[in-house]
Design goal:
single chain; 411 residues
């Protein structure tokens, strides 16, 4: 018999797993359930009727809060400035949303007198780690209930049967059984034929982007403006953070931008396969990288590229509310002081081409870079530089080469 708790705050999405968790918590813990949902841009289809559905499933209270601007401004933008991409492909759309949702959930739990927290992440997934590490940082005194680690439901088919038995309304069926997670930054698709990496994604997988083969052949140009590493305008029109991402999602989606099919290494130790669509994010990542190439010196740019790998793992592993993330952000912020300017891109049938780069802080100097010889660069300086750089190479070759010759290893 599970220990009795008075009230549980549940991270609620209205999807299959969290929908059946409400009656399960009531049956197994004898608790009231506060369903907590953050609007991070998952769309009206997911949010419409969500509160009524939670109450019909047995929740005693529902909290739904619009977090779209906070999500982009305080979570997505820092990640974008860092250059974080997990395993060279994944733009971390699900990963970056979890700390904010956990923060909202903890706040709701404290406001409503809950004595426990619950989530719908499976025991195989990364999200259990992300939610629970956030809980430890924000409310270490509250115990955590993770139904997927306790109940005897072992598949999505079992979960669908449980919902039917308890009268819980769901959208999923045994025929349409993809697991999807959507927000302003992306949408992920897992399950069904995608569980076998030998299978190509079926025609029902993609939802945000046009098939690149069917996208307009003439393409479309887009101008992105940055101020101190942060997007501030699209095509010359200033907009809020959430509006910028939404606009570029629409633009990129029309041209098949931002599809990836990825076999990734989960934090819990296994490999998984998923398909992701990040149209607006892919455009912004490309534009930001081009502007940094123009405005950062070589040493800073290269060091930041190394740091981006660590930042991506930190986000992926759920370590957002940590001193390390705050320290990395301080470094990144310093590097972004002069990452301001405009990047013009052409989007065409899944491809992004750079048309122009402009910045008042550009380190590109035509007088120096030009093939035309001038007074700005003394070519004779290169000889001494090469000699000093090559000194250890020359010494190694002369000493080791001589030893090899003596040992009969020459020629």
């Amino acid at each position: 018999m599970a220990p009795r708790v008075k009230k549980v705050a549940l991270a609620y999405s209205g999807g299959l797993d969290t929908s059946i968790i409400i009656p399960w918590l009531r049956e197994n813990y004898g608790s009231e359930v506060v369903a907590v949902c953050g609007d991070i841009g998952q769309g009206s289809e997911e949010l419409e009727g969500l509160a009524e559905k939670a109450l019909a499933s047995g929740a005693c209270d529902v909290r739904v809060e619009d977090l779209r601007e906070e999500f982009v401004c305080d979570y997505v933008w820092p990640m974008l400035r860092s250059g974080a991409i997990y395993e060279h492909k994944y733009l971390l759309g699900t990963s970056i949303a979890r700390p904010l949702l956990a923060k909202l959930q903890v706040r709701a739990a404290l406001e409503t007198g809950c004595d426990a927290l619950a989530h719908g992440a499976t025991g195989k997934g990364n999200d259990q780690v992300r939610f629970e590490l956030a809980y430890k940082a924000l409310a270490p005194h509250l115990p955590v209930i993770a139904p997927w680690r306790e109940w005897d439901i072992v598949s999505r088919e079992d979960a669908i049967d449980y919902a039917a038995e308890h009268g819980v309304p769901i959208q999923q069926s045994k025929e349409e059984i993809y697991s999807r997670d959507a927000n302003l930054w992306h949408i992920s698709h897992e399950g069904a034929e995608l569980e076998d990496p030998a299978n190509a994604p079926g025609p029902k997988v993609w939802s945000l982007t046009e098939n690149p083969w069917d996208a307009p052949s003439r393409g479309e140009d887009v101008l992105v403006t940055f101020e101190a590493g942060t997007p501030s305008a699209v095509n010359g029109t200033p907009a809020s953070p959430a509006s910028i991402v939404a606009e570029l999602n629409r633009t990129g989606g029309r041209h098949g931008i931002g599809r990836i099919d990825l076999v990734e290494n989960r934090f819990v130790g296994m490999k998984s396969r998923g398909c992701y669509e990040t149209p607006g994010g892919t455009i912004l990542v490309a534009a930001h990288a081009e502007l940094e190439a123009l405005t950062l010196d070589r040493a800073t740019q290269h060091y930041k590229q190394k740091l981006a790998l660590d930042y991506a793992e930190l986000v992926y592993d759920g370590k957002w509310f940590t001193p390390l993330r705050e320290a990395l952000d301080a470094f990144v912020e310093s590097t972004q002081r002069h990452v301001s300017g405009e990047i013009r891109l052409r989007l065409c049938q899944g491809r992004i081409d750079v048309l122009s780069r402009e910045s008042p802080y550009s380190l590109y100097t035509p007088e120096i870079a030009s093939f035309t010889m001038g007074d700005e660069y003394d070519q004779s300086d290169a000889a001494g530089f090469i000699n000093l750089t090559g000194l250890p190479i020359r010494v190694h070759a002369s000493v080791q080469g001589a030893l090899k010759d003596k040992a009969g290893g020459g020629a």
